[in-house]
Amino acid sequence: LRSSYELGLLTTLGAAYAGMMGYAAPETAQTYARATELSDELGDVPELFWAIRGVWSAMLVRGDLVRALEVAERLLRSAEASGRDALRMEAHYTVAAAHMFMGAMPLARQHFASVLALNHADRDMSGRLYTAVDVVAVSLALAAQTAWLLGLDEEASRFNAESLALSESLAHPVSQAFVQNQASTLGYLNGNRELAKYHAAETIRLSETYGIFFAPIGALMMAWVTDDTLTANTMIGMLRGGGSHVGSTVFYCMLAEAQWRNGDTKAAEQSIDEALAIAKANHEGYWEPELNKLRGDIAAQEGRIADAERAYRLAIECATTRGLVALTRRAESRLASLLSKPISNSR
Q1: 102-124 residues labelled b (16+ CB within 10 A) or e (exposed)
Q2: C-alpha separations of 296 from 44, 62, 73, 125 in Å
Q3: CB neighbour burial string for 127-159, b if at least 16 within 10 angstroms, e if fewer
Q4: Which residues touch 236 (CB under 8 Å, ≥6 apart)?
Q5: What stretch of H or E contains 7?
Q6: pLDDT in tens, 113-161
Q7: Residue 194 and residue 172: Cα distance in Å, rounded?
């Protein structure tokens, strides 16, 4: 009885820690790990799914994407066996998110679609007591990025608008901050500074008002908008120092772009190298093509035509292999114009 009581407390405490300090914080990870131990001792109890879901969150945010996908697939098997739609939605979300960061966008899109197919007006929303976020709101937000990377602009715009509307109607602060952060990221993907700035400001406002952990990511986005390399470096250090590694390829790409625009091409190249090393180590493949394209842009601006062509072709190969249509088009456009006009240090 005591173990059951402790398990119930731990699963809700884990969500509280996640909302305040992040999923990769030691307190969060340790709480979910202890909850999983208790679940294993007690057998097939309802809390077991949520304990493992918490462990998955910590793995994903720490950048352990291969193991996160393995755990997500375990969650999906468990959810399907339970027959409960709420669990199936959560499980499909975990599989989708892992695939997305690894760059397997068609698979990510498929599992996000499975989440949304199970959505209805009277759905069970109690899961956010254990995960700190609403599964439909966050699925829509990440599905928007997935669609954009696949070249599905209308679908991306629709999902982004739906995620913002839903999170606003739910008035659930962590979900709102998550969605605003992802909307800001979508602005970044598009190279739209004003959109990125607006949603980054909202991310920071919500984070500071409610004590949510997204503030450093919002500040990093603001630093990209303003080409503030000092703040960008500081925020990346803060995130990675706190164990948050997922998305680091994008973070370092932001930093590299700002460094390049400030004329520090050597530092920009070093940031690209760091990002590509992370992509290789963590299997974070979704932004690798853009990193190679940026390397090509720098080489082209410096008149190193052969190096630029090589980088663009590598970007096209990486993007095409993963079905990242938007990034394929972007690199192909750069390659096509390489010999006809100079490349400026902007998108």
Answers
A1: bbbbebbbebbebbbeeeeeeee
A2: 53, 29, 37, 46
A3: bbebbbbbbbbbbbbbbbbbbbbbbbeebbeeb
A4: 220, 248, 251, 252, 255
A5: helix 2-21
A6: 999 999 999 999 999 988 889 999 999 999 999 999 999 999 999 999 9
A7: 25
- Identify the segments of the chain with pLDDT beneath 70: 1-25, 29, 32, 35-46, 342-347
Q: What's CA 152's distance to the chain center, in Å?
A: 18
CA atoms of 138 and 112, how far apart (whole Å)? 10
Residue 113: what are its φ and ψ, rounded to 5°? -60, -35
Residue type, 7: L
Contacts of 106 (CB under 8 A, 6+ apart): 150, 323
pTM above 0.85, yes or no: yes
C-beta separation of 7 from 33 below 8 A: no
Contact criterion met (CB below 8 Å) for 60 and 101: yes
